[in-house]
């Protein structure tokens, strides 16, 4: 390896350990697996250029089982050749001679080998990821046990509706380092926290996003993160990240109840336009609160008394759950410094974020 570019050699294979610490060196990351494999998880920033589509893989696999491996390979080779030709004429047709892509498939076998060979014969400095996605996945799992312990977290605590996510956004704008777990998980964390237009990623994709975010952090500077339970929607926070967060320094966000109601209404505005969706989520709380109370909340929503709905959810559901869990799960929560925000104005959150950024930068 020399300079900022990869020194080219006839050896096209590159190990996962070598490639993944310097992904930025590559001009493109090319995932040649099928559309379904890519959708479940892929290297951050990769593009999908299948050499066999999902339907073609199924057809070739059936042929291998029911006819012969030779016939399956011959059919597969025809598909692979046509697909690579199509990618050359579309996705890659304007790539310069100096282009350096990293190519991978499931396990670094025939699919990525075929693509790498053709790209190399054209004259591009293509490399094939040894071990493919499986090697990358093993690397991610290993790194998620190591990286969290290197980070100095500042955990933003506060009752539901206190604007923790909003504060994180303003901290990021002020130049602070932020790990926004709910953004990575595409979920706001509570029983009502699903995003109607953004389904959650797979667990593997979530972990890939976490690895990428943690890998990019400067461990010499603090990182702000929101207090979370072990699961965000259907996704699990990796154990070592959870441990690092729960033993970290805490900052408690203190916001008046009336402001919390306004903030929550702003976050969950979509439920005010979709009563059936709200009712379905409230039904999930029946075991905790009983049919009578759930019926009361539904009734308030049906007549548009949204402030009352949100206030009762806070007082009777969210606040007791938060108070029960925060001191038990975050060992330094009792000693948390307090940030008081008295309105839902963006300017007040910006001011708080600026003060936190300055005070933590001085540590």
Describe the structure.
- With 363 residues, the protein is α/β, with parallel strands linked by helices.
- The chain has two domains: 13-141, Rhodanese-like domain (Oxidized Rhodanese, domain 1, 3-Layer(aba) Sandwich); 151-361, Rossmann fold (3-Layer(aba) Sandwich).
- It is built from 16 helices and twelve strands.
- It has helices at residues 16-20, 35-40, 54-66, 69-89, 110-122, 132-146, 164-173, 181-185, 203-215, 239-246, 257-267, 269-272, 275-283, 286-302, 306-329, 346-361, and strands at 13-14, 28-31, 47-48, 101-104, 127-129, 153-157, 177-179, 223-226, 231-232, 235-236, 249-254, 337-340.
- The strands form three sheets. A five-stranded parallel beta sheet has the order 1-5-4-2-3. The chain has a five-stranded parallel beta sheet with strand order 7-8-6-11-12, with helices on both faces. Strands 9-10 form a two-stranded antiparallel ribbon.
- β4 (101-104), α5 (110-122) and β5 form a beta-alpha-beta unit.
- The longest helix has 24 residues, at 306-329.
Q: Which CATH C-level class of the largest domain is it?
A: Alpha Beta
Rg of Cα set: 25 Å
Beta strand count: 12
> Can you tell me the CATH architecture of the largest domain?
3-Layer(aba) Sandwich
* Spatial separation of the terminal alpha carbons: 37 Å
Strand content of the residues, in percent? 5-15%
Number of structural units classed as domains: 2
């Amino acid at each position: 390896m020399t300079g900022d570019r990869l020194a080219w050699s006839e050896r096209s294979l590159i190990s996962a350990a070598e490639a993944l610490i310097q992904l930025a060196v590559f001009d493109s990351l090319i995932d040649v697996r099928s559309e379904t494999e890519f959708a479940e998880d892929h290297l951050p920033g990769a593009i999908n250029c299948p050499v066999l589509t999902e339907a073609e893989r199924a057809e070739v696999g059936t042929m291998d089982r029911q006819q012969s491996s030779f016939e399956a390979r011959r059919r597969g080779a025809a598909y692979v050749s046509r697909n690579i030709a199509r990618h050359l004429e579309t996705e890659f047709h304007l790539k310069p001679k100096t282009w350096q892509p990293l190519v991978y498939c499931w396990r670094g076998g025939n699919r990525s080998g075929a693509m790498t060979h053709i790209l190399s014969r054209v004259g591009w400095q293509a490399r094939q990821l040894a071990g493919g996605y499986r090697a990358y996945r093993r690397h991610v799992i290993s790194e998620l046990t190591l990286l969290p312990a290197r980070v100095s977290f500042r955990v933003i605590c506060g009752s539901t509706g206190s604007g923790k996510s909003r504060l994180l956004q303003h901290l990021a704008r002020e130049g602070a380092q932020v790990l926004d777990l709910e953004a990575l998980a595409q979920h706001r964390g509570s029983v009502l926290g699903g995003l109607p237009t953004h389904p959650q990623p797979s667990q593997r994709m979530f972990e890939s996003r976490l690895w990428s975010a943690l890998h990019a952090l400067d461990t010499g500077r603090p990182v702000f993160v929101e207090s979370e339970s072990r699961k965000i929607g259907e996704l699990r926070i990796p154990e070592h990240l959870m441990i690092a967060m729960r033993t970290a320094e805490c900052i408690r966000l203190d916001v008046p109840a009336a402001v919390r109601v306004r903030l929550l209404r702003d976050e969950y505005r979509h439920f005010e336009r979709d009563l059936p969706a709200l009712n379905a989520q409230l039904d999930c709380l029946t075991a905790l609160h009983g049919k009578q109370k759930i019926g009361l909340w539904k009734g308030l929503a049906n007549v548009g008394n949204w402030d009352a709905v949100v206030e009762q959810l806070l007082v009777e559901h969210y606040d007791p759950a938060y108070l029960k869990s925060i001191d038990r799960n975050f060992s330094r929560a009792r000693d948390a410094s307090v940030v008081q925000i008295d309105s839902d104005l963006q300017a007040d959150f910006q001011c708080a974020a600026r003060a936190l950024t300055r005070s933590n930068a001085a540590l």
